[in-house]
Write a structure and sequence with these properties.
The complex is a heterodimer of chains A (377) and B (637). By secondary structure, chain A is of the alpha+beta class. Chain A has two domains: 105 residues, no CATH class; 212 residues, no CATH class. Chain A is built from eight helices and eleven strands. A seven-stranded antiparallel β-sheet of chain A has the order 9-4-7-8-10-3-11. A two-stranded parallel ribbon of chain A has the order 1-2. In chain A, a hairpin with a 5-residue loop joins strand 7 and strand 8. Chain A is elongated and about 80 Å long. Chain B is α+β, with helices and mostly antiparallel strands. Chain B folds into three domains: 179 residues, no CATH class; 118 residues, no CATH class; 286 residues, no CATH class. Helix content of chain B is 43%, strand content 11%. Chain B is built from 23 helices and 14 strands. In chain B, the strands form four sheets. In chain B, strands 1, 2, 3, 4, 5, 6, 7 and 8 form an eight-stranded antiparallel β-sheet that branches. In chain B, strands 9-10 form a two-stranded antiparallel sheet. Chain B has a two-stranded antiparallel ribbon with strand order 11-12. In chain B, a hairpin with a 5-residue loop joins strand 3 and strand 4. In chain B, helix 22 packs across helix 23. The chains are: A alpha+beta (377), B alpha+beta (637). Chains A and B meet through helix 1, helix 2, helix 4, strand 2 and strand 3 of A and helix 1, strand 1, strand 2, helix 2 and helix 3 of B.
Chain lengths: 377, 637
């Protein structure tokens, strides 16, 4: 595969020969010919009657109107705002022709859309500038757009981690990453946002729970990849927060919420407290706790220890079919965490992390992304 | 030789802790013209022939492996320009080698992008909503249990999408746009790729010319997009005007609804790249007839684009002078149900049934003969009776499905639940809220006769006497009929606040939507005739019906809230309620029910197409001898 990609990087692995385009004729037209034909039909006699509402000059800002000139002085333009912002305007029906007008114009529509009695063939090669006098020589650049990784431990991170104690479900993956974990599409596996680190670029940290995966019908809008709140609560109350309490000094843990619901109440505070209106949409605030990298190793070790203990207890309970449940929190829930996996992702570097030479790409990547990661991974 | 800077990268990355096969990088290759001082902008676009060749080579056909999943996108309906995505299944050569995902596209789409939200996007149902007639919109919202579509909001959405398109393409010819290739590869493959290139002596990469790309002047591509999109958008406006309640003519027939949906599909793909093959109604749809001949459905753009290089619309499909489909063509296009279905998969069965019913009502009402000769009158009589039968059938179906989906429990429901649980493959997904639901469809709804109901419930019926409901005037069968079939529809003409007297369960009944549709489509005299037919059928065939009130379409038994109650009617026409309907009464006293099996009615099983077809009544009677005897009997009567 490396050899294949190397070949492809040298020269695109496409067709070897391209035929020359035929000369333009009534039977074969270019994109320019197509535009000219339609422009003729959209002649001034028809005014803007063939335009949809949104394309009428009156409804467009000056820079998008048909009569706009690049050097035009915009200072004299009255302040434009979209007519669709105007509630009265948006309640009007679409403009449409009367029956008589339609009878006058339908043949134009027919000709535009069907290409007339003998529709011409469209050959885009006629417009290809590279086959003609192409003066600006294109440049090829290389970039890295995203970095994604399954990491074995929090200890792989070497910068401050903003731990999210209440986890915002909106951060969950909504589309395919084209990656799989244990044979399941990654975005179908239930997961929750555990925090973020770095600021340029920012990395997101997720905890995946493959054991919670179920074969259910999924749609684009319903991916069933959320982790129920009681499981997130259990994870925080039984594993992570105790580990943090054991590790951090008294000074460091002053702002650490004692348990999950305390963090949740804080996240709701700004939306609920002082709110005088019943129907106001309530937005949760993300409550995070900054964790210094020197603690990662110990915190994660303690967290995983208690997680494994809870999982073993839950398994033992399940085996013995014991119905004892003395604690307020259901220990059997922890079975969901069996086989958990940490995952980090960072996206959208392509516009900044690019290099005109592939061979320098790694150093640019190192300078612009990994230099941030120098303290991170 | 080691990759020169790898040591430094390793010092930053804790590579030892990360599996090289489990870390991924998106490697991009971008080809763009440099910004010139005085020159037009250029847009680089991929040649589809080259992308197809790349795909073939990546497949590595000589090796046995899973086939790649490839999607090719056409730009603005053009044959030769587009993009491609390639996903390697787990056992494909590319995936095994560390190449997970490949995408190649022109970055001019970024000018339309608002945080992954594109104008007229795939999830945007507003175009479809505006395409539907008001009755259909009401029915869909009621049956799906979703909020009513606000047409002002839909128009705003359409215009705002259009505004964004215009702002991206008008007077922006100075901009340059790149062609991008992106490969999601493992860290291991990236290192191997570097090594391979070093071993080759670091050769120059991608030198000019770039044969795999077209370079168009950006202004030309923008003008092409403009003249590709605007005619479709205006045509769409001209068609949906019929659905706009504020327009002078606010009725839209089924054919125009189909046309509007088709145009909206075209419009969504007109300004950028689109996966046309995903939509058989546009691309290619062929069905095989029983006699093994093939029938082409849909627009058939695949063949047109292949021949002409562009998707000219076929002449023979449309009749532009009446702004609709040509004669006999509309049947080749499905109703928008499948388009909506993609976005509202839940409760698919209920929606499908409802939409089929609405279309049947439309079809019967639209094709009702209006002539005054005897033949036309007879046919109109048969069609109206058929429609009445269809609505009664739907009422019976609603009774049974609602019972199984209600909170009321009965032995038959428990048996059905256990049967479904025993078959996990067919077991429906339920939520805690739906625990009492049992999803079951009734192609042939059981009779509403005491014996049939008892058999289906698997237990004795809880009966209601006249009680308090009697005082409200619903003690006769006609009063019940009025409540079930007339009053709700009449109440819709009243102001919104007075409609609320009908509450739980009333608005999602498909038989009521069908009746509303018929009221909308028929003139007053014909609608009255239809009600007479329905009343007659209800009187004779519905002898045992579930209790209803304005508060609940299925009312509970006054003594037991977990059971619904039933009303029985005696005498041949069952005009008066049987009082009391004694559950201990021997079944023999219900013998007069035996003649009231609606399944034996001559019109029960006649399909809609037969009744509305171009065949004359005579031909119909030849095909259905019982129908002949029935008509003769009715005429004699």
């Amino acid at each position: 595969m490396a050899s294949f990609l190397a070949d492809h990087l040298e020269n695109f692995k496409g067709c070897e020969h391209h035929d020359r385009p035929p000369p333009e004729s009534p039977d074969v037209i270019s994109l320019q010919g197509f535009v000219d034909l339609r422009r003729q039909l959209y002649n001034p006699d028809n005014g803007q009657q063939l335009y949809p509402d949104f394309a009428r000059d009156a409804y467009l800002p000056q820079q998008a109107r048909s009569d706009y000139l690049p050097d035009q002085d915009l200072r004299d333009d009255p302040e434009w705002f979209s007519p669709w912002d105007d509630s009265t305007r948006s309640k009007e029906p679409f403009h449409h022709m009367s029956r008589t007008d339609w009878q006058r114009h339908y043949s134009t529509f027919e000709e535009i859309l069907t290409g007339g009695e003998n529709p011409p063939k469209l050959d885009v090669r006629l417009d290809d500038q590279s086959s003609m006098h192409f003066t600006p020589r294109p440049k090829v650049t290389h970039d890295f757009d995203s970095v994604l990784a399954f990491i074995p431990s929090l200890a792989s991170i070497k910068t401050v981690l903003r731990l999210s104690l209440t986890s915002n479900p909106a951060r969950n993956f909504k589309a395919s990453l084209h990656l799989a974990h244990r044979g399941r599409p990654l975005h179908h596996i239930p997961h929750f946002f555990l925090g973020s680190f770095g600021h340029d670029p920012p990395f997101n940290l997720f905890l995946f729970l493959p054991n919670l995966f179920r074969n259910v019908k999924r749609t684009r809008r319903h991916l069933h990849n959320h982790v129920p709140e009681h499981l997130r609560r259990d994870f925080m109350d039984l594993c992570l927060l105790p580990a943090l309490r054991k590790t951090l000094s008294s000074k460091e843990r002053q702002s650490l919420p004692s348990y999950y619901y305390a963090a949740k109440a804080k996240s709701q505070a700004s939306a609920v407290e002082g709110n005088r209106y019943a129907n106001t949409k309530r937005t949760m605030q993300e409550i995070s706790f900054d964790l210094d990298p020197r603690h990662f190793d110990k915190v994660w070790r303690l967290c995983v220890e208690s997680l494994n203990n809870k999982i073993s207890e839950a398994e033992a309970e399940e085996r013995s079919e014991s119905e004892e449940d003395s604690s307020g929190i259901d220990g059997a829930n922890m079975l969901a965490f069996k086989g958990f996996q940490l995952f980090v992702d960072s996206k959208g570097h392509k516009d900044r992390v690019s290099s005109s030479s592939f061979y320098q790409l790694a150093s640019v990547f190192k300078k612009k992304v990994l230099s941030r990661l120098h303290e991170i991974l | 030789m080691r990759f020169s800077n790898w040591d430094q990268i390793e010092s930053k990355l804790d590579v030892r802790s990360i599996d090289e096969n489990r870390m991924y990088l998106d490697l991009g290759i971008v080809t763009i013209t440099p910004k010139a001082r005085v020159s037009p902008g250029y847009t680089a676009k991929h040649k589809l022939c080259c992308l197809n060749e790349f795909k073939e080579q990546l497949q590595m056909g000589h090796l046995q492996a899973s086939k790649l999943k490839v999607v090719d996108y056409l730009w603005c309906f053009l044959r030769d320009v587009g993009g491609m995505t390639i996903v390697g299944p787990v056992k494909s050569i590319s995936r095994l080698g560390g190449l997970v995902y490949t995408q190649m596209y022109s970055q001019d789409k970024l000018s339309f992008d608002a945080q992954k939200h594109f104008p007229l996007g795939a999830d945007d149902d507003t175009l479809i909503a505006m395409s539907l007639g008001e009755q259909y919109r009401e029915a869909i919202c009621a049956i799906l249990g979703i909020e009513r579509f606000d047409m002002n909001a839909c128009r705003l959405s359409f215009n705002h999408s259009g505004l964004r398109i215009m702002q991206s393409i008008r007077n922006q010819g100075w901009r340059d746009f790149a062609a991008r290739e992106e490969f999601r590869i493992t860290l291991k493959l990236y290192k191997a790729l570097n090594q391979e290139l070093r071993d080759r002596g670091s050769p120059p990469l991608r030198t000019f010319p770039h044969d795999n790309l077209f370079f168009f002047e950006t202004q030309l591509t923008h003008q092409f997009v403009e003249f590709n999109t605007l005619p479709l958008a205006r045509w769409y406006q001209e068609v949906v005007r019929w659905a706009d309640s504020k327009a002078p003519t606010s009725q839209i027939g089924t054919d125009r609804q189909k046309l509007a949906v088709l145009i909206s599909l075209l419009l969504k793909h007109s300004y950028s790249t689109g996966f046309l093959a995903k939509f058989p109604v546009m691309w290619q749809k062929i069905t095989r007839n029983e006699d093994d001949s093939t029938l082409e459905l849909g627009l058939g753009l695949k063949a047109i684009i292949k021949e002409f290089g562009y998707a000219w619309l076929p002449h023979e499909i449309f009749n532009f002078s009446i702004n609709s489909f040509a004669d006999g063509v509309a049947d080749r296009f499905p109703f928008p149900i499948s388009t909506i279905q993609q976005n509202y998969r839940r409760r698919g069965g209920a929606r499908k049934t409802s939409m089929e019913l609405m279309q049947e009502v439309d079809q019967v009402c639209g094709r009702l003969p209006l002539g005054t000769n005897k033949s036309d009158e007879d046919k109109a009589f048969v069609m109206l009776t058929w429609l009445a039968m269809r609505i009664i059938k739907e009422y019976m179906r609603n009774v049974w499905t609602s019972l199984f989906q209600s909170n009321y429990e009965f032995a038959g429901k428990q048996a059905e639940r256990e049967k479904q649980m025993a078959n996990p493959r067919k077991r429906p997904r339920t939520t805690a809220r739906q625990e009492s639901y049992v999803f079951i469809s009734f192609d042939i709804p059981p009779n509403l006769l005491y014996t049939s109901v008892r058999r289906k419930l698997g237990e004795k019926l809880k009966v209601c006497g006249l009680g308090s409901r009697g005082k409200k005037g619903h003690q006769t069968k006609d009063a019940i009929f009025n409540l079930l079939f007339v009053e709700y529809i009449d109440s819709l003409d009243q102001p919104q606040d007075q409609r609320s007297s009908f509450k739980s369960g009333w608005k999602d009944k498909s038989y009521l939507h069908a009746l509303m549709q018929a009221q909308h489509a028929l003139d007053a005299a014909k609608y009255k005739q239809l009600l007479v037919h329905i009343r007659r059928l209800f009187r004779y065939y519905c002898r045992c019906v579930p209790n209803v009130s304005r508060d609940r379409w299925l009312a509970p038994c006054s003594q037991d809230k977990t059971k619904n109650s039933w009303m029985g009617f005696d005498t041949l026409y069952g005009l008066r309620m049987r009082r009391p309907l004694n559950p201990h009464e021997p079944w023999s006293s219900w013998q007069d029910e035996l003649g009231a099996d609606i399944h034996r009615h001559v019109l029960w099983n006649v399909p809609c197409d037969q009744i509305t077809g171009t065949d004359s009544l005579k031909t119909l009677m030849i095909n259905y001898p019982r129908l002949k005897r029935w008509i003769e009997g009715v005429v004699a009567e």
